[in-house]
Amino acid sequence: MQGETYFSVRMRASQNGSHENGGKHISGGERLASFNGLKDAVNALLDKGLSHSRGKPDFMQVQFERVDEPIRPLQPLQIETNEVCTAEDGRVLAAALLSKAGVPAQSIDKVFQEIDQYSDVRGAVLFDIDSGKRIDGREEKGVRVSRLDWPEADFAQWAASHGAPLNSRIKEALAIATKVCRHPAVIAELCWSDDPDYITGYVAGQKLGYQRITKMKEYGDESGCRVFFVDGLTDLKTCIDDLEKKPVLIQAGGKRWGDH
């Protein structure tokens, strides 16, 4: 990695026009790739956007740009799977895990009361645990965590050593959760997919780790959510810039944010 030029590759796909023109969000993705790996990264994101269960897109944008900042290696969060029988049980468990991570009860209650309002947000909602309000100001766009990846060989080695499946969903979700929850301003993350065929979600935190919950909604439900619970006393602009622009590679032997 040292001395090699990397590129941030991003994809977004929608149906019935672009996102800006009211199109339905279908898929998005992020990769970090060397110049020689650009074609593979672009093809992988094209395939993801064209084969999503939310529908066939009629608008897709794929772009890449050179990354000029040093890339930080980060260790993946510890992972644990929690089996539940119903979506209601899953959300009750999610609330308990958020509380364990340090999110106040009133903030947890407020997010679950407003969760339907967040289903059309393309990125993440930043929720201040002190004021109990959404503070990112991004409306339907939200905050899009970017400039991150997990090299396939390293992920395969990690998955084998942890008894985890070689599942691209787990790789992508754990990579995002790791970058997000290693940030000092983030207390915890709550997420489940807008994919109607995927009902597993998670709660993640720096000390809590990545807690998969096997059922957070019903099959066929296209609503999803991604909420970052943050300490509103921190510099919000710096926090958003870090999440969207600071380049990170997840590596099983990597460092934690701030390690030297």
UniProtKB/TrEMBL annotation:
<comment type="pathway">
    <text>Metabolic intermediate metabolism; pimeloyl-CoA biosynthesis; pimeloyl-CoA from pimelate: step 1/1.</text>
</comment>
<keyword id="KW-0093">Biotin biosynthesis</keyword>
<keyword id="KW-0460">Magnesium</keyword>
<keyword id="KW-0436">Ligase</keyword>
<comment type="similarity">
    <text>Belongs to the BioW family.</text>
</comment>
<dbReference type="Pfam" id="PF03744">
    <property type="entry name" value="BioW"/>
</dbReference>
<dbReference type="InterPro" id="IPR005499">
    <property type="entry name" value="BioW"/>
</dbReference>
<keyword id="KW-0067">ATP-binding</keyword>
<dbReference type="GO" id="GO:0000287">
    <property type="term" value="F:magnesium ion binding"/>
</dbReference>
<keyword id="KW-0547">Nucleotide-binding</keyword>
<comment type="function">
    <text>Catalyzes the transformation of pimelate into pimeloyl-CoA with concomitant hydrolysis of ATP to AMP.</text>
</comment>
<dbReference type="GO" id="GO:0042410">
    <property type="term" value="F:6-carboxyhexanoate-CoA ligase activity"/>
</dbReference>
<dbReference type="GO" id="GO:0009102">
    <property type="term" value="P:biotin biosynthetic process"/>
</dbReference>
<protein>
    <recommendedName>
        <fullName>6-carboxyhexanoate--CoA ligase</fullName>
        <ecNumber>6.2.1.14</ecNumber>
    </recommendedName>
</protein>
<dbReference type="GO" id="GO:0005524">
    <property type="term" value="F:ATP binding"/>
</dbReference>
<comment type="subunit">
    <text>Homodimer.</text>
</comment>
